Amino acid sequence: MGDTGRLALAGGVMATALAAALAALLLAIAALLSVLRSGHCNAVKILWVVIVLVAPFLGSLAWFALGRRGIEHRTASR
Fold first, then answer.
1. What does the pLDDT average to over 12-33?
2. What's the CA gap between 73 and 75, in Å, rounded?
3. Which of 7, 50, 67, 71 has the most CB atoms around its CB within 10 Å?
4. DSSP-based three-state secondary structure for 55
5. Residue 65 has what DSSP assignment?
């Protein structure tokens, strides 16, 4: 592979990494906004904000998978 091919490959890797980082940032921002707008009590909101800030990608996924359905949906179904 010549220098041009290596540069193109490096550019593609950098573009992919930048896109992934931007997607993770947008996911974390969306999760934080969702947490703050949720009907959970303030203590639960603070806990979720901390989780999202400490582990932005996994914390955001956890919020969307588990947190949004937490207390609000359980009490509404009774």
1. 95
2. 6
3. 67
4. coil
5. I
